[in-house]
């Protein structure tokens, strides 16, 4: 009689991963996306490896990595048609590494451009926050309006300290 082999811990772990399945609702909750988004991805052919049992989508642990990539691409503003292109290339394997690399590189540059734009807007918001905070301390915008204020393009940093006493003194002299 042949001796029965005992499964190793690694084999058990692999079997456990392969056997563990998730419904669309479970995946949606874990990935923090709407189930309708996952259905849409499936309808658009972005989830080619998802199995179905009696018409129900069944996700495995290995599907989460792909979903994470899809979610990242979507959340960084990549249009669905480009995501489809990326997914199609990924299915073709190694011969498309260069094309996938270029798609990711282009998307990364778009994100960097968005970050630059947001940083530009953040400067204006920082300045306006400082402006109104200072106006609240002074009880009026008038002293601030009388001073020359830089345009957003001139702003490097929000003034750290404002001599509120000096502005109040100037305000009182003007009113006095």
From TrEMBL:
Gene Ontology MF terms in the entry: DNA binding; DNA-binding transcription factor activity
Q: Does the keyword Isomerase apply?
A: no
Native species: Lactobacillus equicursoris DSM 19284 = JCM 14600 = CIP 110162
Q: Which CDD domains match?
A: HTH_YyaN
Alphabetized, the UniProt keywords read: DNA-binding
Question: Which InterPro entries does UniProt cross-reference here?
Answer: DNA-bd_dom_put_sf, MerR-type_HTH_dom, MerR_fam
Its recorded name reads Transcriptional regulator, MerR family
Which N-terminal residues, if any, form the signal peptide?
Answer: none
Q: Output the SUPFAM superfamilies linked to this UniProt entry.
A: Putative DNA-binding domain
Record flagged with keyword Mitochondrion: no
Where does the record place the HTH merR-type domain? 21-89
Determine the domain of life of the protein's source. Answer: Bacteria
